Amino acid sequence: MLLCDSGNTSMHFYDGSTHTYKQSVEEFDGLIDSCKVYYINVNPDLETTLQQMPNWINLQSYVNAEKYYDGMGIDRIMACEAVDEGIVIDAGSAITVDVMHQGVYGGGFICPGIHAMQASYANISSRLSNSFNFELDLDKMPKNTQDSISYGFLRLLYGEVMRHNKPIIITGGDARHLHKVFQHATVDELLIFKGMKQMIPKIASC
Amino acid sequence: MLLCDSGNTSMHFYDGSTHTYKQSVEEFDGLIDSCKVYYINVNPDLETTLQQMPNWINLQSYVNAEKYYDGMGIDRIMACEAVDEGIVIDAGSAITVDVMHQGVYGGGFICPGIHAMQASYANISSRLSNSFNFELDLDKMPKNTQDSISYGFLRLLYGEVMRHNKPIIITGGDARHLHKVFQHATVDELLIFKGMKQMIPKIASC
Description:
Two copies of one chain form a homodimer. Chain A is α/β, with parallel strands linked by helices. Chain A is 29% helix and 25% strand. Chain A has helices at 44-51, 74-81, 114-124, 145-163, 175-179, 191-199; strands at 2-6, 10-14, 20-24, 37-41, 56-58, 86-91, 94-101, 104-112, 168-171, 186-187. In chain A, the strands form two sheets. Chain A has a five-stranded mixed beta sheet, with helices on both faces. The mean pLDDT of chain A is 93. Chains A and B meet through β7, β8, α3 and α4 of A and β7, β8, α3 and α4 of B.
């Protein structure tokens, strides 16, 4: 059995126990035919190919979509499915933040990701073209440019997340960076796969 | 007497009482020689020209720079000079937020402006290419895409600003938009000019 979380540029695979690897969408040749591949996919160009492969099973149709909202990304839904109580931060090209109350979806919001925010400041002015200070003092209003932009991004995100007073779980490619700000959070790089894995008992096993 | 707040693309003039107008930097011919022009300028390409005009007086040298920090924009400083107690939001290409306690600068932070944030979301994914909902319910976690990005920008900014529990004064080209979120704030489009005007008694009058 394999799990696959397919994005716009890369496909992330997980063997369900220990091993994960990534493959670019461009390099994907579809030659995984030894067993079932349970997948989610946000790349419309890839969907037709995946649907034609008899051993690939799209988990999207097994989600109780009524729990979430129309247009919510399936990767974001799977991360939420893995959490019963808590606030889920998926830090990638965008940062999605979602609240789960006793298994019920409580809504969420989206910020641009670390790279996108850095680019946004740099586009406004070369004077704002700085990396973020993830060791920023969150209790002190800044008096220098690097901390001013770091605060304008990280402190505002921190304030909102902490306001919900729930366990925090961070996943996604930039999870380690955000962990410096949310020091008591749990980092779980397999969160989306955990949500996917929970769907499988609903289907015939591999 | 004229006051001039010179930016990277346009020069904003004020006659000190009622009349304001804008001129693009490109169109500027320097032919204002009837009286003194008190100015601030963030455009390095223009500075040499302005310095050569005998009736133009740069107010920057009259600011007590020690109150602020090295690298802080002179327009931002002038807005702060106009406020004794409060939180100053200047909503332009960037949104700067600065705290003043009894005339003392308490630090501040910078977010990308409305246009920059909208572009940032749109660059991440066409699904996030939405205008912001300034009538967003700030007390409710969103369950649709437009509100999710609006919340990720406006609610986070709102939460941080309100935390300081001070009078809020908004200035800048996007002040009217942000006023929908900060409904109890004062909008003062002349705030920078007010700060500049306060400097003038320190210099010989026009």
